Amino acid sequence: MKTKKSERQTWSSRLTYIMTVAGATVGFGATWRFPYLVGENGGGAYVLLFCIAMIVIGIPMILVENVIGRRLRVNSIDAFEDKLTAKPHSKYWKIIGYMGLLGAFGIMAYYMVLGGWVMNYIISLISGSLDISSTISKDYAKTFYEQSISNSPLQIALYTFIFVAINYVILAKGIIGGIERSVKYLMPLLFVFLIGMVIRNITLPGAAEGIIYYLKPDFSKITPQLFIMVLGQVFFALSLGFGVLITLSSYLSKEENLVQTAVITGFTNTVIAVLAGFMIFPSLFSFGIEPNAGPTLVFQSLPIVFSHMWAGRIFAIIFFSLLLIAALTTSITIYEVIITALQEKLRMRRGKAIALTLGGIFLLGNIPSILSDNLLKDYTFFGKSIFDAFDYVSGNILFLLTALGCAIFVGFVLKDEAKKELSNKPNSTFTKIWFNYVKYVVPLIILVIFVSNLI
């Protein structure tokens, strides 16, 4: 990839950009985190609030990061420079970009390990070491999880390394030749697997009860606290606050309609997250499995469900393959945030930047996260294991502070320049409403989420 702004590549089409952004935002946030949070928080009530939150904070913040990213068409640190502003602003605004990079490191520190877990389940299902040819018990599923993940650090380290290596192969081919080209194949495959799983699950006996639980909101469960939690989930689901959308939009053509792409991105993420629930909750209720298992829902509860199904092993392999594809389309874009910054800030060759990024995160993040359940289980931060601490610091502190900085930067620093970047009609009613909403309302929403997460 070339680092000079004037020679910067652009996406081959709007569709490929939207598919890439969809891949970046549809990872474990939609396929793993969203379903278990729905199960823990009242089913349909959570789903309804998630759809509302996507409009309240999701789409406006997508536009914020798109404006920042396309404005100078550089990495997520230099995007906060003042080259185009009439009045110079402080160089310290770049701290926002550096916070985003720290957040990207934090999420990748444990995210890639989750990819290793998924690979472990796929291989175990194929080899038969996870035998679901007959109905398995809750104890069997729990024992397998503990023995193959918590107590097998070398095995998980190997699978995580393989997952990292797959990312390396794609990233080595560049933004267009690697990321864009791979997403063209991976996203349609993800959709095929997703639709196939949904059809299978909603046709199970007794699935209607799960669909009702998932879609019918219990309004008594809707509270301000729950809505604040859902708003925070939207940041995770859309990869907001760690430079992904800033980096990806820096390859957008100046002729591209940012509003349309933002709306499509938010809609696509919401649809896939909701569909992910359809491939889980009908089957849980069909076979009498509790939906409130928390983070272990996918890894402990669903194998029990698949063991009850006809051709359950095949569907289990498809399901976990879907998770792996979703994780891959997200991880390559998060890695790219750091890689692009190293290339353009340090004039580093792409191959070296990739090796340093992936290798550094593997040694300093992935390995400690893998060992946090065993050899390093006595080391805690903020009262949490190393694995959970990476999640907590990146998701509850760094992402939100970065997003807050982005909103303030657009509203109080870029001002009219932001309006002009968003639309060729900067004085239109929509542009004015969005700008004032981002300037005055969005920072307050983010502060409420931030304080709530720390209490």
UniProtKB/TrEMBL annotation:
GO terms for cellular component: membrane. It holds the Pfam family SNF. It is found in: Membrane. The chain crosses the membrane at residues 12-32, 44-64, 92-112, 156-179, 185-214, 226-252, 258-281, 317-342, 354-372, 392-414, 434-454. It comes from the Bacteria. Belongs to the sodium:neurotransmitter symporter (SNF) (TC 2.A.22) family. NCBIfam families: Na_transp. This is Transporter. It comes from Avibacterium volantium.
